[in-house]
Design brief:
With about 525 residues, the protein is an alpha+beta fold. It has 2 domains: about 190 residues, PEBP-like (Phosphatidylethanolamine-binding Protein, Alpha-Beta Complex), CATH 3.90.280; about 210 residues, Alpha-Beta Complex (Phosphatidylethanolamine-binding Protein), CATH 3.90.280.10. The protein contains 10 helices and 21 strands. The strands form 6 sheets. Strands 5-11-10-7-8-9 form a 6-stranded mixed beta sheet. The protein is elongated.
């Protein structure tokens, strides 16, 4: 408790995060410290000189119960099969993720001195001071959390760094009186907990442990334990929804490298979330001797999971929301900055228009101000899907500019010979990025294929002039329509009609909820 170098906020903090040029502490994702003047856990929680180690007379056993389940975070659905009991050991701590510690805990006390007394258990974030639980009136002679009164239910860790880990402290105090009802607490704390219920983490961050203990005349702490935690996507979604921080880009970057996305430099650091949603209009049609009916649907892209969209579902440009990776992300974060958005594709069977080094450029918007893609300069309008029965991965990349740019796309397609796409095919991306001094800061992507998608047969009939039988064969849809058995070989569809480049209707941004993604139960445990 009193070791001034035991945790990330100790003496070594100023080595890792030195003061800025003005002699002030840094305040960002890597170096956020609400109180850089305290270095030990004791001083941080009880203020300098407010902690008395002699009050600790018992040992608090805490067991964290990890359960299997699923949750949604940063636009991706996660499932964990892990199930274990983790006994906390403050001397040799096991580092747990917020998901592992989210289900609940049990606690017991060894050597309790006054078994006939009542006790209060407080769980608090030792690094950032957020309250994570308060239980009062726990009987000492039958010590069990379920026999106490939950003033504030347990909430697991919610940390924004992968390393170093952060302490979450369990402190047991002895009460001098019985709190028969919630409103018997001092009025200031009744209002605090009422507001916490209404506003959540924003109020929990205002918790003052020493003031609470003094106001309730608590004695101690008589026992202490803590768990160490590092961040995970579960915590990332909780922080994002509560608008405390956005750390999703670090998980998107990790996934982008795992999937081997093209054109990502080794030294690239994602710092912006690129949330995207495609709206697919419902349609009813008959083709390939079958009737099809599709409802209106909005697809929120899942880059971490490499999601799939049929070509018809992304024929129109997406709604895009940009959110910076930082503490307390705000719309004003992008003021004074400009960005470039590129969407490109590489189709292995269309070597004449694309390659891994020189892809086909589907969309280009430059000089994006205020984080609003719809306010940027559309250099290349959004291009309808390139039809191929192979699986392809359209990539959307966001670059930060050093200055406003003026782009002539033909300058970067010297080897393109497709008359319908002379400013798009075989696009020299590396040269484009280097010459315009662009820095990759975010990405999104999905996979797609026309194979087995009957709706694409309609497009193939319209654009390629194929018969219904041959169009069905091209997309691999079976049916007693006389379709040929052999696959049809066709040229790449680069003369497809292109929808409007960007929908100027600002309502598109409303597709994103407070968590900037879709689905229910985001950042919350599901059985």
């Amino acid at each position: 408790m009193e070791d001034k170098n035991a945790f990330w906020f100790g003496y070594n903090y100023l080595v890792r995060c030195p003061l800025n040029q003005y002699g002030l502490p840094q305040y960002n994702i890597e170096c956020g410290n609400f109180d850089p003047t305290t270095f030990s856990l004791a001083d941080r929680l009880f203020r300098a000189g407010g902690f008395n180690a002699t009050t600790i007379t018992s040992y608090l056993d805490v067991v964290i119960h990890e359960k299997p389940g699923s949750y949604e975070a940063c636009g991706h659905s996660y499932t964990s099969e892990g199930e274990a009991d983790h006994t906390l050991d403050p001397i040799n701590p096991e580092v747990l993720t917020p998901w592992q510690a989210s289900y609940g805990f049990t606690a017991s006390v060894q050597g309790i001195e006054e078994p006939n007394a009542l006790y209060t258990l407080i769980i608090v974030d030792g690094g950032f001071f957020f309250l994570h639980g308060v239980y009062v009136d726990i009987p000492g002679n039958n010590f069990d959390i379920k026999f106490g009164k939950p003033i504030s239910e347990y909430g697991g860790p919610s940390y924004n760094k992968d390393d170093p880990p952060n302490p979450y402290v369990f402190l047991l105090f002895r009460q001098e009186s019985f709190f028969e009802a919630f409103d018997q607490l001092p009025g200031i704390w009744v209002r605090f907990f009422q507001q916490q219920t209404e506003y959540g983490p924003q109020i929990a961050s205002l918790f003052k442990l020493l003031d609470f203990a003094n106001d309730l005349k608590l004695v101690g702490p008589v026992a202490v334990n803590w768990l160490m935690s590092r961040t995970d996507p579960y915590a990332a979604q909780s922080l994002l929804e509560s608008r405390i921080a956005n750390i999703c880009p670090m998980f998107v970057e990790q996934a982008a490298r795992e999937y081997g996305l093209a054109r990502i430099p080794d030294d690239a650091k994602f710092s912006v979330s690129v949330f995207m949603a495609h709206e697919s209009v419902g349609r009813n049609f008959s083709v390939c001797c079958n009737n099809y009916a599709y409802e209106d649907q909005t697809y929120y892209l899942d880059p971490i999971g490499d999601g799939f969209l049929a070509p018809f579902d992304f024929k129109d440009p997406p709604a895009i929301k940009l959110v910076k990776m930082k503490l307390v992300p705000l719309p004003t974060d992008f003021i004074g900055e400009y960005y470039t958005l590129l969407q490109f594709i590489w189709a292995p069977n269309f070597a004449e228009i694309s390659s891994p080094e020189r892809p086909f450029m589907k969309w280009m918007v430059t000089n994006i101000p205020f984080g609003r893609v719809d306010m940027g300069n559309t250099v290349l309008p959004y291009f309808a899907p390139v039809l191929t029965t192979l699986t392809v991965r359209p990539q959307t990349m966001l670059y930060k500019q050093t200055k406003r740019v003026r782009i002539n796309p033909f300058q970067y397609t010297p080897d393109c010979t497709d008359a319908a796409a002379l400013d798009r095919c075989l696009f020299e991306m590396d040269r484009f990025v280097e010459e315009n001094e662009l820095e990759l800061v975010g990405a999104n992507w999905f996979t797609s294929s026309a194979s087995g998608d009957a709706s694409i047969a309609l497009v193939a009939m319209d654009i390629l002039g194929l018969s219904e039988a041959d169009a069905c064969a091209y997309v691999g849809v079976s049916g007693p329509c006389g379709a040929t058995d052999a696959p049809i070989t066709v040229a790449p569809i680069t003369d497809a009609p292109t929808p409007a480049a960007v929908d100027e209707d600002s309502d598109k941004s409303r597709k994103f909820d407070d968590g900037h993604s879709s689905g229910s139960g985001k950042g919350r445990r599901r059985p």
